Batch of 2 targets.
Target 1
Amino acid sequence: DADVTQTPRNRITKTGKRIMLECSQTKGHDRMYWYRQDPGLGLRLIYYSFDVKDINKGEISDGYSVSRQAQAKFSLSLESAIPNQTALYFCATSDSGTANEKLFFGSGTQLSVL
Amino acid sequence: GQQVMQIPQYQHVQEGEDFTTYCNSSTTLSNIQWYKQRPGGHPVFLIQLVKSGEVKKQKRLTFQFGEAKKNSSLHITATQTTDVGTYFCAGRRGSGGSNYKLTFGKGTLLTVNP
């Protein structure tokens, strides 16, 4: 959805570099998520935040950190990138006040670690 | 932890044939959602099922939730080339805490030969 914006769209970096992926949303949703997608492995949850100052680990948080600077912004950092972190990263949001609380995804960031 | 298994991983059909993807959870779910990801795109919400034995239809798509709330299926009747993409199921265990997050299946990639 255009209301969930991820930057950059593509990034190539080298092993050991620090990388930050940004996500911002104009939907007014309270909950935000970071997923990574690898071929054949589906979508795996890295971190999620139910509100500002709330941070929770997902299935695969090792090697990642996040910051929820404001309700609209949720950034993902790789402190020291490694090649197996090469993947497609999605940010998503949801509204806890809705009945089905569906996820709205950004367009993704393709990260390559050489 | 919770696992959501989805089969098949790939399905290739001739246009006009039917298609089904199946989802099985290792634990009872409170609800299950289905998403579609077009090639090069991001996942987009299709539907949520909540009740035991629930069946919902969206035009040529039929979604079912099992009686035990541990399995679900998506059936597409008379596929069209616009149905191409990866279909994901995502299950939620409960209503609070870490159980609330969605766990995605690995997805079924559908290709349609015109």
Target 2
Amino acid sequence: GDSVTQMEGPVTLSEEAFLTINCTYTATGYPSLFWYVQYPGEGLQLLLKATKADDKGSNKGFEATYRKETTSFHLEKGSVQVSDSAVYFCKANAGGTSYGKLTFGQGTILTVHP
Amino acid sequence: NAGVTQTPKFRILKIGQSMTLQCTQDMNHNYMYWYRQDPGMGLKLIYYSVGAGITDKGEVPNGYNVSRSTTEDFPLRLELAAPSQTSVYFCASNQQGTNYGYTFGSGTRLTVV
């Protein structure tokens, strides 16, 4: 069945370090792919998205490229800040009978130290 | 824009009590969802709706009911609260189509004692 697998955390980095959080998906056809961020005590917010192969989504210094050949959508940031500490969720939106039922990845906790 | 509004923000229930979690969106989104998030865990889909009058079960529907009489509102009903339902509940909505991201409410933190 359709699913999303995220890199397990937690991830702990020092400020200005490079960040990668892996996400791979299994879905029928070509889903749209999303990254969401959840800050402590808040709901999820859409961070970025890509709707077709080779698209790159970007926002707030974060980037992710839709790789059809590896079915991946890894989140990257060149220089993290303390304010990036949050939980990050990957999600795929596939059409057909799976729509609405696909869950989020399990989430990756990121902690950035000064 | 208000976006997705959830009420209440916090609630403590006794075992066996009932309550309704309210969710309203003002973006004219057809699709709406209820998720629960247990401490330190990811999101699990409880129910979703693709339009007024249409609802369907997600991964963990047992112990919950929903209705969708209007496009704007998607209340979640707990009939007989159990400690296993202690969680944070999030409502979300999006436009029809796979290219659209979700807009989330700020959540309802429910404790059943």
